[in-house]
C-alpha cells in the first residue's frame, strides 16, 4: 500500500475502501516503498499487487529494462465496472501511455489520476500574506521554465482558476497575483482587509 505516512499509502487505502466498501485486510496489507515492494513482487512473490502513485512518467517504471515485462504486468482500470464508478467519484480518469513505459506497455491503458492542490490557511498577517503572494507571482513567472525543463507532468498543469467544489475558495491575495500575471499586468492591491475572527486573534494570525 506504500510506506506509512506516505501519499501512496493514503491513496491506496482510500481507493480500496471506495472500491470494495471496506479497508484492506491487515493480513493482506504491506507498507513498503515502491522499490521494496517491486523487489518482493518479482523475487519472493510475497506480494500480489503493488500500487505506484506517481507523476507520469514515473522514473521507477520508465527506467525498467525490456526483461521486466516477464515479471510485471500493469493492471487495466475498467471505468465501467461498478467498483470503478465508485472510485471515479473522487479520482479522475487518466491514460497510462505506452510512450511513457515502452518496455512495459504495447498500448495505452486506462488508469486513475490524483489531482494535487496547493492549500493554505486564510492568513491575515501582512508579512505572511506578502510571502504567499510572492510565491504565487514567482510560480507564474517561472511557469514556462518549469514546463520546459521540469518533470513532464508540468506540461499538463494549467494556471487557470476553475470553479471549485462546495466549501472551497481561492486565497484572494494569491488569486489576484495569478490573474494579474496571466493577464500580464500588476496586481491591484486590496483596499479592504478581512475581519479577524476571535479564533484567528487567539492563534496570532491577525496582522
What is the helix fraction of residues, given as a range? 25-40%
Q: Which strands sit side by side, in order, in the main sheet?
A: 1-2
Order of helices and strands: HHHHEEHHHH
Percent of residues in beta strands: under 5%
Mean pLDDT: 83
Q: How many structural domains?
A: 2
Distance between the termini: 43 Å
Unreliable stretches covering 5 or more consecutive residues: none
Number of strands: 2
Contiguous helical run count: 8
Overall 3D shape = globular
Helix and strand composition category: mainly alpha
The largest sheet is: 2 strands, antiparallel
| Global Rg | 22 Å
Q: Mind sketching the topology for me?
A:
Blueprint: H1 7-20, H2 34-42, H3 59-62, H4 82-87, E1 92-96, E2 109-113, H5 126-141, H6 143-149, H7 172-183, H8 198-202
Antiparallel strand pairs: 1-2
What does this structure look like?
- This protein folds into 2 domains: 7-113, no CATH class; 126-202, no CATH class.
- The chain has 207 residues and is mainly α.
- The protein starts with 6 loop residues before the first helix and ends in a 5-residue tail after the last helix.
- The chain has 8 helices and 2 strands; from the N terminus they run ααααββαααα.
- The protein has a two-stranded antiparallel sheet.
- 35% of the residues lie in helices and 5% in strands.
